[in-house]
Design brief:
single chain; alpha+beta; seven-stranded mixed β-sheet
Length: about 650
């Protein structure tokens, strides 16, 4: 946890500053025995602490202490690192409050600590800094206070989508028993004792694994004398061997889904573990590949950030994405395609030179001299494993899940697994939204009938004729539909006056004519289709069932079944019918009829545009004629 204390430096910069640090210190006769010199700016204390001095002429001195421990699951108690950091930072806060003058920034932790001080106050601040880290004194009262704060923090961030995706992503990457993947809970935090913290600090605050980097206007002899009085008595504990299992990426890329029906934007994390460290021979190439990836992602219409998380034994490549829920499947494919690009295509020379120039400013100690287009591509292949990724998604799946199941890599569908917010596997989710309170089949039909003109007008209509036309490849098609309350129905598609297909339903005889062949309709199929004969089936609620609410073309619709092979869709806000679906239960094939652009005919609204999709083919019909209450002859339904 970082807590910064930033103070106005203007006052100090406008008055004379007399440094406590002399330009050069006499050489102490014990210095040679106490330090092992690596080079002019680097030396090692007898206890193993590595010290690096970067001289400059700034009026401030910055100090950073890093302890590079390997992960240890045997001794790790979930949340104890955070508790220890909070206890150390509490000491930093107290000290800073007492001596604000000259202390610009301070942050303390078991893995990394730092402070920045005015040169005139540096010695006092450094002695305090060393005393806290070498001989910390933790109290029971402070422990309870810091545990309470962390427990409260967990409670407050439970519903934060980004926090949840990060948490689940870590656990899936490393496993719940791994120190990087274990989850802090209220229960685990509450169980931590003062003795746990003391033992934990003794085991992991190890000078042999630590490096102290100091930047400022100091002489090296002055610094060595200061270190003898501060860090030389830090116990030279032996580092512990790593006991954690090797992390393994999935055999194939997988989608890990967390359902949340209360968020508008999807949070997506693409991640894989990889063997990468700052000492890796391809570390410079990896930085270039990362920069290139971020450059390509920045051109997209969604928020992204790619980064490399460098950790001992188990680094990760990560891409975070925030996008509108409805475009989640498409965004996932976009990001995967961009990652494929950096793996398969070499970067052009001009872009490579520009990226390296920018990276040299951000990473002055990294050597980019051996980097070329081919080594960048090889690093991309090695560290961005597009075919072995875990893709963690937290979103409202109702809006896109059917399309999510169509995502494919190398021709194979990417599997979807479901998890809760604690990274625990759960059963596959059925994406069925709860119907709004008060919505029934009666209210759906009442809203529809009111929307088209009112039930008083509708009940006066006993028969209808609807004619429409369509043009496909310069061929004109005519659609004709006849309905009556006497259970007579006929629809046919004609080409040049000749019948292409025909469906007839009567009390006595029903059949389908297609391709020159006539096929009788069985009794079970007939019962499923008989409702079609009525001009307004919404007057027959006893033959229907309200199924669900879902999103269709970005609008909420209520879905009603009139049989087990047909569904009707009604717009939740307008009440108008938008779609009809008839499907074959055995083959799964569907005929989808859509209705648009309602217009008034004798006081009733009818759709003036009808489209029908059968397989991959779609016909668009323009309604040309609607007759209300025509008189039919029996021969019209033969």
């Amino acid at each position: 946890m970082k807590r910064f204390l930033v103070f106005l430096l203007a006052f100090f910069l406008n008055v004379p500053v007399f440094s406590q640090v002399p330009a050069e210190e006499p050489v102490d006769q014990n210095l040679g025995e106490s330090f092992k010199t690596i080079n002019d700016s680097t030396f090692v204390l007898r206890n193993g602490l590595t010290v690096i001095l970067s001289k400059n002429t700034s009026k401030v001195i910055s100090v950073e202490l890093s302890i590079n421990n390997l992960p240890h699951s045997d001794f790790q108690i979930a949340g104890i690192d955070a508790v220890t950091d909070n206890l150390l930072n509490a000491k930093g806060d107290n000290y800073s409050a007492e001596t604000k003058e000259g202390l610009v920034e301070v942050n303390l932790g078991i893995n990394k600590s730092n402070f920045t001080s005015l040169t005139s106050k540096f010695t006092d601040h450094f002695e305090w800094f060393a005393n806290v880290l070498v001989s910390p004194k933790f109290s029971e009262n402070q422990l309870q206070a810091e545990k309470s704060q962390l427990i409260s923090s967990i409670s407050n961030t439970t519903d934060n989508p980004l926090d949840i995706v990060n948490r689940v992503g870590k656990t899936l990457s490393y496993g719940p028993e791994h120190p990087y993947g274990e989850l802090s809970t209220i229960k685990t935090l509450d169980a931590i004792t003062l003795q746990d913290v003391i033992i934990h600090y003794q085991r992991f605050a190890v000078p042999k694994n630590a490096s102290l980097h100091i930047k400022g206007d100091l002489s090296i002899n002055f610094l060595k004398n200061l270190l003898l009085n501060t860090f030389s008595n830090w116990t030279a504990s032996n580092s512990l061997n790593s006991t954690v299992a090797e992390t393994v990426n999935p055999q194939y890329t997988q989608l890990n889904f967390i359902q949340n029906d209360s968020i508008e934007y999807s949070r997506i994390q693409f991640l894989n573990t990889t063997d990468l460290s700052k000492e890796s021979v391809d570390y410079p190439e990896s930085l270039v590949a990362l920069k290139l990836l971020n450059t390509l992602l920045s051109n997209e219409s969604y928020e992204t950030q790619a980064f490399l998380e460098i950790l001992p034994l188990a680094s990760r490549a990560i891409v975070n994405v925030s996008t509108a829920s409805k475009q989640t499947p498409e965004v996932i494919m976009d990001v995967l395609d961009i990652i494929k690009t950096i793996r398969t295509q070499q970067i052009d020379d001009s872009r490579l030179k520009k990226i390296i120039s920018e990276l040299k400013e951000a990473y002055p100690n990294v050597d980019f001299s051996e980097v070329d287009a081919n080594t960048v591509r090889l690093a991309s292949v090695l560290h961005f494993k597009v075919n072995q990724m875990r893709i963690v998604i937290m979103a409202d799946g109702y809006k896109f899940y059917e399309r999510l199941k169509d995502i494919k890599l190398k021709g194979k569908t990417v599997p979807v697994k479901f998890y809760n917010t604690r990274a625990e596997r759960v059963e596959d989710i059925k994406f069925e939204r709860k119907l709004p309170e008060g919505v029934t089949i009666e209210t759906v039909f009442e809203n529809y009938l009111n929307a088209i003109g009112g039930i008083e007008k509708v009940i006066k209509i006993n028969s209808l004729t609807i004619k429409a036309k369509a043009v496909i490849n310069e061929t004109r098609l005519n659609l004709e539909i006849k309905k009556s309350v006497d259970n007579n129905y006929m629809s046919q598609v004609l080409v040049g006056g000749n019948t292409l297909s025909k469906l007839v339903i009567t009390e006595d005889s029903s059949y389908i004519w297609s391709g020159g062949q006539k096929k009788s309709i069985g009794s079970s199929e007939l019962n499923a289709l008989r409702y079609k004969s009525h001009p307004f089936l919404e007057l027959l609620p006893e033959y229907s069932k309200l199924l669900r609410i879902e999103t269709l073309n970005e609008r909420d619709v209520l879905v009603v079944a009139f049989s087990d092979v047909s569904e009707e869709y009604y717009d939740f806000k307008t009440g108008l019918k938008t779609q009809s679906v008839v499907f074959d239960k055995d083959s799964g094939e569907k005929i989808i009829t859509s209705y648009r652009n309602y217009s008034n005919v004798e006081g009733i609204l009818y759709p003036s545009e009808i489209s029908q999709k059968i397989g991959d083919a779609t016909l668009f019909f323009e309604v040309t004629e609607i007759k209300v209450n025509p008189t039919f002859k029996p021969s019209e339904f033969e």
